[in-house]
Structures are given as structure tokens and as C-alpha cells.
Design a protein that fits this description.
Layout (H helix, E strand, L loop, with lengths): L2 H4 L35 E6 L5 H17 L2 E6 L6 H12 L5 E4 L8 H9 L4 E4 L5 H6 L6 E4 L2 H16 L3 E6 L5 H14 L4 E2 L3 E2 L4 H14 L5 E4 L2 H13 L7 E6 L2 H9 L4 E4 L2 H16 L7 E3 L3 E3 L1 H10 L12 H4 L1
Parallel strand pairs: 1-2, 1-3, 3-4, 4-5, 5-12, 6-7, 6-8, 6-9, 9-10, 10-11
Antiparallel strand pairs: 11-13
Helix pairs in contact: 2-11, 3-4, 6-7, 8-9, 10-12
């Protein structure tokens, strides 16, 4: 179902007083208003780098839900997907201002904890989306998020593994993860390896830092060292597209299956064209919408579930056209527990 069609206005629209732009910030068109005199009704969001289309789409979802609900939102993004320090600085600046709720999508489990401690000290609700905050670090800093909104990444990796086992049948596959030690990457890889265990042989996981060019180089090296390789799993679409290019360069498109996770528009188009075998769509647009909905409910005093699981769906060639038609919204219906709290 479309969040845009199911969410109703719960909080009053209020006048906004513009404050100075957070230094070097990038994000939505609302960035020129980095705070509000009516902080109890405004939302600040700090997300990962917009150099990755996944987080561009997440920002679009945040903005769309804020517009639909009449919520004033300020979005700040890191300069890149690895800009941990810059992202922390953006949150630190926003934490000094008067917002009624904060949405955070940290690059690592602990890079935003210091800034969140300042938010928590003011008893302002925090909604954690996409990348979990490290629980131990959060507890030590007195940070208690109102809810976590995100994909079940083990499930997403499992869908990829099940499909890989079905299309490959037997043989060896390579696994290319994101940043070494990253929770999201690890969960996707775990889901994949569990799903293919006993059916496919897996090479040791190689980290490509979520980067397309690094994944291309890594896949090229792995194909040289393992000429009989049957497929690759990539922990995100950007790396999956890099691997697909390496496979094409080797003249093996259609012979070496590439499956990735995210469901970005370019990846879905690559599935439709036959360059990718499949992508597991996890709808960053919906994650952004759900994050704002969670803030709406929190600011209205509602009790939130500990976790809100966003939808995932396997996109294969036969489903690509339908997925593109609905993009960036989910092409399959899902149950949204926040609807009842924001009606």
C-alpha cells in the first residue's frame, strides 16, 4: 500500500523561522531552514551520503511524507557514504537546535552516538532508520531510540541466496560485501550464505566498501582466479552493477549470475536488460516515509513498536517492468503498523 495515500495529517502546520544553514550541509530543499521556533513540530533527519542513489531515494521518501503530513523537515546528508566525521558534525550542529524529533541513518553503529547523547539529554525522540545504532554504545551514552525502522537484512540476503541456488544449481559463487565489519553488510551476507549452504560453494567474502569500481576490480580478480565461478552476490546494487560490468567485460553475461540488494532504479533496469539476474528491493523511499511517520507518532505521544520492518521483494526479469512502474514505491503491498498511530 502507498504510505502517501494512507497517512493523514496528525499534527498542526506551524510557522517556521529560518535559521542559518548547517555548514557544508547537503540534502533536501528544506535545508535553508535548519530549525524552527516550533521545534515540537519539526523534524531533523541525518542520512548517509547522497553519492549513493539508495540514499537519494531515501531522502525523497522523507520529503514526500513530510509534505503529505504537513511536517517541517530538515535533511542533512554526509558528503559520501564513508564520511563518518562529516555526518557526525551535521548531527552535532542540528542537535543544538529546537527540533521535535530526529531521524538518524548512521554510517556506522557508533559514529553518531555522541551527537545523539545531546539529543537524548533533551528528552527528544530519536528514530533510527536503515543502519542500526550500536546498542552498547547507545546505552552507555544514555541514548534510547523510540524505534528502529529498516529492512530485515538477513531476510533480504536470504531471498538473494534462494534465487541464486535456484538459477545456478551447483558450483562456486563469490560474495562481495560492503565495509568490513558493517552490520548491514554482514546481515545480508549471513542471509545469503545460510540460504545457499549445502547447495553452492562460497568463496571467502571480499569487502569492496560499497563502491562500484572496487567491486568491478574485485570481481575481475575473482573470475581470473576462479574461471569456473557461476555467480556473485553483492551486498548492494552499486557493487552489483560494478560486478555486472566485470562479467560483461569478460564476455560472460548470462553465464555468471549477479544478484544484489537495494532495488535502485538503475539496478531494476539492469535486471530488465539481463545484465543483473535479480535485485532484492528494500525500498529506501518507504524507509524514509516510515521514519517521518514514526516521528509524527512520537511527537503525538504515541507508543511505538521497538522495530518497524520495511518491505523487501525479489525483482527478477519478469517483475522488473512492474517494479519500475511503481518506483520508488513498493510494487507489492505490505502491512504498515504505523498507519494506526498516524490516522
Amino acid at each position: 500500500m502507498s504510505l502517501r495515500n494512507t497517512t493523514k495529517l496528525r499534527i498542526a502546520v506551524v510557522a517556521v523561522a529560518a535559521l542559518p544553514l548547517v555548514a557544508a550541509g547537503c540534502g533536501s530543499d528544506d535545508d535553508s531552514a535548519s530549525g524552527s521556533d516550533s521545534g515540537s513540530q519539526s523534524v531533523a533527519a541525518v542520512i548517509k551520503g547522497l553519492d549513493n542513489p539508495f540514499f537519494q531515494t531515501m531522502e525523497d521518501g522523507i520529503d514526500a511524507q513530510a509534505d503529505e503530513a504537513g511536517v517541517d523537515v530538515t535533511v542533512q546528508a554526509a558528503q559520501s557514504i564513508t564520511d563518518t566525521t562529516g555526518q557526525a558534525e551535521r548531527l552535532s550542529a542540528l542537535s543544538q537546535q529546537d527540533f521535535g524529533c530526529y531521524i538518524v541513518n548512521p554510517i556506522t553503529g557508533n559514529n553518531l552516538v555522541q551527537g545523539l547523547a545531546q539529543v537524548g539529554a533533551k528528552d527528544v525522540p530519536i528514530v533510527n532508520i536503515d543502519q542500526p545504532i550500536d546498542a552498547d554504545a547507545a546505552e552507555a551514552a544514555g541514548v534510547d531510540p523510540a524505534t528502529y525502522v529498516g529492512t530485515d537484512n538477513v531476510q533480504a540476503g536470504g531471498l538473494a541466496g534462494e534465487h541464486m541456488a535456484e538459477v545456478v544449481g551447483s558450483g562456486t559463487v563469490g560474495i562481495i560485501g560492503g565495509l568490513a565489519g558493517d552490520v548491514t553488510s554482514n546481515d545480508r551476507v549471513t542471509g545469503f550464505t545460510d540460504a545457499v549452504e549445502g547447495t553452492l560453494d562460497t568463496l571467502p567474502v571480499v569487502a569492496a566498501d560499497w563502491d562500484r569500481q572496487k567491486a568491478l576490480t574485485t570481481a575481475t580478480d575473482l573470475m581470473t582466479a576462479n574461471p569456473d565461478i557461476k555467480g556473485f552476490f553483492a551486498a548492494n546494487d552499486d557493487m552489483g552493477l560494478g560486478i555486472a560490468r566485470a562479467v560483461a567485460n569478460a564476455g560472460k553475461t548470462g553465464q555468471v549470475a549477479v544478484i544484489s540488494v537495494d532495488g535502485n532504479e538503475d539496478a531494476i533496469k539492469a535486471v530488465q536488460a539481463g545484465d543483473l539476474e535479480a535485485t532484492v528491493a528494500q525500498y529506501p523511499y518507504a524507509v524514509g516515509q516510515l521514519g517521518v511517520q514514526a516521528c509524527q507518532a512520537a511527537m503525538a505521544g504515541e507508543d511505538l513498536p521497538d522495530t518497524v520492518t520495511s518491505p523487501v521483494a525479489l525483482v527478477t526479469e519478469d517483475k522488473a517492468a512492474g517494479a519500475l512502474e511503481k518506483f520508488p514505491e513498493p510494487f507489492e503491498s505490505f502491512d504498515n503498523p504505523l498507519d494506526a498511530l498516524t490516522d
